[in-house]
Design goal:
transmembrane helix, membrane, EcsC family protein, transmembrane, about 0% strand, mainly alpha
Length: about 260
C-alpha cells in the first residue's frame, strides 16, 4: 500500500496495464484460441531432429536481428509506434513460413525476428527511450525472454522481474563492454552470452509458433495469421516492459517493483 501511495494514480493505472500485458495469457494460449485446438497437438507433431536444432536457429536469428535492427536503428522524435506496419511485414514472412513449413524456419525466423525487434525498438521510443542508448538496445533484446511459459517451467522463473534479474548480469556486462570499446563486433562473446540466455526462453515461444503452423490445415494463410499473433504478443511484452522502465526512471526500480507486485490482475 505504501508503494502505491508514493506513485501517482495515473502511473499506477499505467502499471496495471503493464502487469496485465506481462503476466497474462502467453503465446500458446493465444494461438490455441486461433486454431481452436490445444497447441500440444502441434508440439507433439514436431520432428525431434527439428527441435534439437531450435536453440541454434533461435540464437542465430537473434544475433542477426540485433545486428540488422537495433544496432543500426537511429533515434527519432517520440511518436506512436508503427505497430500495424510491422504486423503486416511479419505476416508476409509468416505466410512464406506457413507455405514451406518447418524447412523454411532457418530462413523465415531471422526475417520475422528482425521485423519484431524493429517494432520493439519503435515501441521503446514511444515510451521515452533513446534507441541510441546501449541500455535501451539491451532492453529491446530482453523483450524476447518475456512472457514465455511451458509445462516444464517452474512458476518462480516466469515472473517479469525474476526474468529481468536472471538476465541482469549479462545485460550489465555487455552494456559496459560496448560503452567502453565503442564497437559492437569486439563485444561478440558477451553479446553471444546474453543472446543465448534470451534464446533459451525465446525458443519456447518459437516452438509454440511452429507447432501452430505445423498443424495440417494451417498452411500459408494460417502461417501469416499465427505470425501476426506472434508479433502482437511481443508488441504487448514490449509495451509492458517499457511502461515499467518509464516508471522506473520516475520513481526508481525498487518502488516500482513493490507497486507492481502489489497490483492484482
Amino acid at each position: 500500500m505504501e508503494a502505491k501511495l508514493s506513485i501517482s494514480e495515473v502511473d499506477i493505472t499505467e502499471l496495471m496495464v503493464a502487469k496485465r500485458l506481462l503476466e497474462n495469457p502467453g503465446l500458446a494460449a493465444k494461438i490455441t484460441n486461433f486454431i481452436g485446438s490445444p497447441i500440444e497437438k502441434g508440439i507433439d507433431s514436431l520432428p525431434k531432429k527439428w527441435t534439437d536444432k531450435l536453440g541454434d536457429i533461435t540464437t542465430n536469428s537473434l544475433l542477426k536481428a540485433a545486428d540488422a535492427a537495433i544496432f543500426t536503428m537511429k533515434n527519432k522524435s517520440a511518436k506512436k509506434s508503427s505497430n500495424r506496419i510491422h504486423k503486416t511485414a511479419v505476416a508476409v514472412s509468416g505466410g512464406v513460413g506457413g507455405f514451406f513449413g518447418l524447412a523454411a524456419l532457418a530462413i523465415e525466423l531471422p526475417i520475422s525476428t528482425t521485423i519484431m525487434l524493429r517494432s520493439i525498438a519503435d515501441i521503446s521510443r514511444e515510451y521515452g527511450e533513446s534507441v541510441n542508448s546501449i541500455e535501451t538496445k539491451m532492453a529491446c533484446l530482453e523483450v524476447f525472454a518475456l512472457g514465455g511459459t511451458s509445462t516444464s517451467d517452474d512458476g518462480t522463473e516466469t515472473g517479469y522481474f525474476t526474468i529481468r534479474a536472471l538476465l541482469g548480469q549479462s545485460v550489465s556486462e555487455t552494456s559496459k563492454f560496448i560503452l567502453e570499446k565503442g564497437v559492437v563486433d569486439e563485444g561478440a562473446p558477451l553479446i553471444l552470452r546474453l543472446v543465448t540466455k534470451v534464446a533459451e526462453r525465446f525458443s519456447i515461444q518459437i516452438s509454440e509458433k511452429m507447432a501452430g503452423q505445423a498443424i495440417p490445415f494451417i498452411g500459408a494463410a494460417g502461417g501469416a495469421i499465427i505470425n501476426t499473433v506472434f508479433m502482437d504478443h511481443f508488441q504487448d511484452m514490449a509495451k509492458g516492459h517499457f511502461i515499467v522502465r518509464k516508471q522506473e526512471r520516475l520513481y526508481g526500480q525498487e518502488l516500482v517493483k513493490a507497486c507492481y507486485k502489489s497490483i492484482k490482475v
